[in-house]
């Protein structure tokens, strides 16, 4: 079931969208805290976002830019300010489609389904892994922290993904090497040591010192 995040401050419209989309077996969540929209986006990890332009505190263009820093998730703008300038602005800011208010709910569903098909038919669902403000984007092998985007090599990315998927648990070096072998990356013990050192250096430079702990003679750990 695909998850849709609804970022709309008019509760009547937001609930109407939610009720209708639920009937089409689309899981939905309405943003409640307009101060911390990005936090809710990361926690919910939706496959599509419905985003109003006029919002409290910061407008939809701001939040579109924030989401685009960490994710390629499809974004559909919904707004009553549907003049050509706003439509062009929405597309230039990273939006994938624009629906003008007032809208027909059947049209909204059709546009959502079409965009979901185009986005996920071949590549699967986009996912994020988050820990202590650091966000690993599985779609482009990058980690984002404190407004910084750090590109990772294939081995660095897979290693960090394994550790984040098992955060709070010690992951042995053998397990990491086997997972890397399974993804067509031949890694021996020395190569893994070098990869971990390079990954730690990148994390340190991004402000994530001591993000990965070593359990001597066992493996590595990302604590809760």
Offer a concise description of the structure.
The protein is α/β, with parallel strands linked by helices and 224 residues long. The protein has eight helices and twelve strands. The chain has two domains: 3-120, Response regulator (Rossmann fold, 3-Layer(aba) Sandwich); 131-221, Arc Repressor Mutant, subunit A (Orthogonal Bundle).
Folded structure, characterized:
This protein has helices spanning 11-23, 37-44, 60-70, 84-92, 105-120, 154-165, 173-182, 189-205; strands at residues 3-7, 27-30, 48-52, 75-79, 97-100, 128-131, 134-137, 142-145, 148-151, 171-172, 213-215, 219-221. It contains 8 helices and 12 strands. It has 2 domains: 3-120, Response regulator (Rossmann fold, 3-Layer(aba) Sandwich); 131-221, Winged helix-like DNA-binding domain superfamily/Winged helix DNA-binding domain (Arc Repressor Mutant, subunit A), CATH 1.10.10.
